[in-house]
């Protein structure tokens, strides 16, 4: 029998100059992203180290770095998570309506409107929340405190100005809604036509077809889009700084005057007037936000990787 060494070896076709340039550019871009990420992490750690090692009495507030950052971290998570809980289901519903229910002209107009909402600056959302949305929530907040005050979220007393965590959550939900909707809509459009037709041919209704074919196919995209929206909500600065009346502390009460701040908004408000160890403290809080965002993205990637067994090819 002829040995394996006697078998003819297949030779790779030589790469064209354009392919080599594209491969090199792609590799360089990937390496550049890692270098920039490492540089940002190194800068944050270096500048935050004096605050990490400083005595508690030198930190603003005089109670230590953890006590300073914890209320801000709590407010960041509270506002971002609740905004995601509001925006994600609405985004999926809007994407389904635009893709499968709306007439073509209406769907096209809604698509343009969604893309336009994603391009609105955050400061515009903040001004809208401060001038329009906050006054409108004063009376509903009073009703919530009176009838649902046994729930910690609506314990009250309600704010007379409406500049509460509830308004900040609603503004953040509106801000991340178009981002999630646009990504999910594109995923639904790419659902294999054969899957949809096979479901309908078996006698499924339109909703049953969506439940059995469209939603499973777009599950990973829904998760990825939700984490993209969560990332923006975690790092949002100006809208929260304009809307929220911060008094510090940790509370689940969404309608009272006592509101925890967020890390990004606190940095934006305090940085211009800070000096010395106060700047290092703010950078340390930025390091916590950086780590939180990195963990969220890694968790989202892990979830998406688990869902890869369902695709349009199998």
From TrEMBL:
InterPro entries reported for this sequence: MetI-like (IPR000515), MetI-like_sf (IPR035906), Phosphate_PstC (IPR011864), Phosphate_Transport_Permease (IPR051124)
Keywords carried by this UniProt record: Cell membrane, Membrane, Phosphate transport, Transmembrane, Transmembrane helix, Transport
Localization in the cell: Cell membrane
Coiled coil: none
Keyword Ligase: no
Statement: the UniProt record of this protein carries the keyword rRNA-binding: no
PROSITE patterns tied to this protein: ABC_TM1
Domain of life: Bacteria
Main location: membrane
Topology in membrane: Multi-pass membrane protein
Any single biological process term in GO: phosphate ion transport
Family under the similarity heading: Belongs to the binding-protein-dependent transport system permease family. CysTW subfamily.
The protein's name: Phosphate transport system permease protein
Organism listed in the record: Saccharomonospora viridis (strain ATCC 15386 / DSM 43017 / JCM 3036 / CCUG 5913 / NBRC 12207 / NCIMB 9602 / P101)
């Amino acid at each position: 029998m002829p040995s394996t060494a006697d078998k003819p070896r297949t030779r790779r076709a030589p790469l064209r100059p354009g392919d080599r340039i594209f491969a090199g550019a792609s590799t360089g871009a990937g390496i550049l992203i890692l270098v920039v990420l490492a540089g940002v992490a190194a800068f944050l750690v270096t500048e935050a180290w004096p605050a990490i090692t400083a005595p508690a009495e030198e930190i603003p507030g005089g109670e230590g770095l953890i006590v300073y950052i914890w209320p801000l971290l709590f407010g960041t998570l509270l506002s971002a998570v609740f905004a995601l809980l509001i925006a994600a289901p609405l985004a999926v519903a809007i994407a389904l309506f635009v893709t499968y229910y709306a007439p073509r002209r209406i769907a096209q107009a809604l698509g343009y409107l969604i893309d336009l909402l994603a391009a609105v600056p955050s400061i515009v959302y903040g001004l809208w929340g401060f001038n329009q949305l906050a006054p409108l929530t004063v009376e509903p907040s009073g009703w919530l405190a009176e009838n649902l005050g046994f729930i910690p979220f609506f314990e009250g007393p309600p704010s007379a100005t409406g500049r509460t965590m509830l308004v900040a959550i609603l503004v953040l939900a509106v801000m991340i809604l178009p981002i999630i909707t646009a990504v999910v809509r594109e995923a639904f459009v790419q659902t294999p036509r054969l899957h949809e037709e096979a479901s309908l041919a078996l006698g499924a209704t339109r909703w049953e077809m969506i439940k059995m074919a469209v939603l499973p196919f777009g599950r990973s995209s829904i998760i990825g889009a939700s984490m993209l929206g969560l990332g923006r909500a975690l790092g949002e600065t100006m809208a929260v700084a304009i809307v929220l009346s911060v008094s510090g502390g940790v509370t689940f009460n969404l309608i009272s005057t006592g509101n925890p701040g967020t890390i990004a908004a606190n940095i934006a408000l305090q940085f211009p007037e800070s000096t010395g160890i106060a700047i290092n403290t703010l950078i340390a809080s930025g390091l916590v936000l950086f780590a939180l965002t990195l963990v969220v993205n890694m968790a989202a990637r892990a979830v998406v990787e688990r869902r890869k067994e369902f695709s349009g090819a199998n």
